[in-house]
Design brief:
Blueprint: H1 6-31, H2 34-45, H3 48-53, H4 59-79, H5 86-106, H6 114-123, H7 128-153, H8 158-164, H9 177-181, H10 183-189, H11 194-211, H12 217-244, H13 263-282, H14 286-312, H15 324-334, E1 342-345, H16 351-356, E2 374-377, E3 379-380, E4 384-385, E5 395-399, E6 410-412, H17 413-416, E7 423-427, E8 433-437, E9 459-461
Parallel strand pairs: 1-2, 1-5, 6-9
Antiparallel strand pairs: 3-4, 5-8, 7-8
Helix pairs in contact: 1-2, 1-4, 1-13, 2-13, 4-5, 5-7, 6-12, 10-11, 11-12, 11-13, 11-14, 12-13, 13-14
Length: about 450
């Protein structure tokens, strides 16, 4: 069960969405009201850019969800202090510490938000024994990591050293000061309707700034969380520009997922801020207040609808919209008795594609392996290709969705127009996934007619 399967692949992204959504709802409910929690939770998990990333296994979102649950547990203990025993409060606070340690193991840069936890414990006037319980919970997880590093690698701090150094990346990304300052709302804006969502998160960030002067512990925690996170990511991206005149860029803040750690406080602040403004305008009338909130939320909701429609029509989703890989698996099942021992595919798009393809060699649950042969590669990276003569047996699996990766790069003719060279054994209904037989000419196409089209933007080397 599970194993190397489609079910196992999608289980973690699903749990990530549950953690992120539930944590945001619970924290918003504890800090303000159930309505704030529900609305903020929906806004987080349905953010179009997040929905586009959701099917991928990305640790940033999971770390954000776990950290939010840790903060929510601290507030739950504070809110229910009079109704729970000392034992239950200690147990909950210890679990919050464990969750913080888990969040660190999931994404190391969560450490920049540790002061927010300390601020929450301080503002909520947690007794000393609960501070100790929280620290023990967090330290126990870190201790397990040290033991693992020592047993496996002979160095208890190997993971810390491995991730502590900056990783230089391309200067093709934003290097101007203003470009970097506005990267957070801009991350929501590069999809249809994103300008409305960007406006909402900008309002949430400004609400967090205003919360710094509030006496309400909830606003202070949200403010420190969102502002501290935004300042850290922005300053890390700005420092190479200021200190080294843009010679290097050490943080790829154009990556939407890097901002995930501040999604919960920003969206909770945005919704709570809208309710605050609505109450001011309504002057105590609950009906008018609710109507104002709904009217204000209709603006970003319009952006959400536009963005989600765009995402739904995109091939960016791992599974795809036309089930081409499900069709591929059905082909494997149908032809199981006559399949060769070798499949060839390209390695040009990196490890992610190579690791996801074998998922479909199993049934959906991973309980049965459909094909148990040898997977080989016709390329290493995007520049090294094996000779066509060496691909004389087995089947070749190609995914046209990935061809944009090779735009402007030199590729062999057999990769550009494979259907003019080899017989097509299988073609998905949308034409994206192909299985070809290099031992047969295209004149024998097993009844599959096709348009033998070259892929635009490719530099073919004959």
């Amino acid at each position: 069960m599970l194993g190397y399967s489609e079910l196992a692949y999608y289980l973690l992204p699903f749990l990530t969405a549950v953690f992120l959504g539930f944590g945001t709802w619970w924290l918003g409910k504890l800090m303000f009201s159930p309505a704030v929690g529900w609305i903020a939770s929906v806004l987080v998990v349905l953010a179009p850019r997040y929905v586009r990333d959701m099917p991928h296994i990305l640790p940033d979102y999971l770390a954000a969800g776990i950290f939010t649950l840790a903060v929510a547990l601290i507030f739950w203990v504070s809110v229910n202090r009079s109704g729970i025993s000392s034992y239950r409060s200690l147990l909950a606070i210890t679990l919050a510490g464990v969750l913080l340690g888990w969040a660190y193991l999931t994404r190391e840069y969560i450490v920049v938000l540790f002061p927010c936890i300390g601020l929450a414990l301080l503002l909520l006037k947690m007794p000393r024994r609960e501070w100790v319980a929280f620290c023990l919970g967090a330290f126990s997880v870190y201790l397990l990591e040290c033991i693992w590093g020592w047993l496996i690698y002979g160095d208890p701090f190997i993971r810390l050293f491995a991730v502590s150094g900056p990783r230089e990346t391309s200067r093709s990304f934003a290097t101007g000061t203003w470009e970097i300052i506005k990267q957070f709302p801009e991350a929501f804006n590069n999809i249809r309707g994103g300008i409305f969502v960007a406006g909402l998160v900008t309002f949430g960030l400004l609400s967090g700034l205003a919360g710094l002067v509030s006496r309400n512990p909830s606003w202070k925690v949200l403010a420190s969380w969102s502002v501290l996170g935004w300042m850290f990511f922005t300053l890390i991206a700005l420092l190479p520009i200021w200190l080294f005149d843009g010679e290097a860029v050490y943080l790829r803040m154009h990556k939407f997922r890097y901002w995930a750690l501040i999604f919960p406080p920003v969206f909770i602040s945005a919704v709570a801020g809208l309710f605050f403004l609505a109450n001011l305008l309504a002057r105590g009338s609950r009906i008018i207040s609710t109507a104002v909130v709904m009217a204000l939320l209709a603006i970003p909701a319009f952006g959400y609808l536009l963005g989600l429609a765009k995402v739904a029509a995109s091939d960016d989703l791992v599974r795809g919209n036309n089930n081409e890989y499900q069709e591929f698996r059905e082909f494997l099942i149908r032809e199981q008795d006559s399949l060769p021992d070798v499949f060839w595919t390209d390695y040009g798009t990196g490890a992610s594609g190579v690791r996801s393809l074998p998922i479909y060699f199993y049934n959906w649950a991973g309980s049965k392996k459909i094909w148990d042969g040898n997977l080989r590669y016709i390329s290493k990276g995007s520049s090294t290709w094996i000779d066509q003569a060496k691909i004389s047996s087995g089947y070749v699996i190609l995914d046209r969705n990935k061809y944009s990766y090779f735009a402007g790069k030199s590729i062999p003719l057999y990769f550009s127009t494979p259907e003019t060279i080899w017989a097509t054994i299988f073609r998905s209904s949308n034409g994206h996934v192909l299985v070809l037989d290099p031992s047969r000419s295209p004149a024998v196409n097993n009844g599959n007619s096709s348009e033998n089209k070259s892929i635009p933007g490719l530099n073919v080397v004959k």
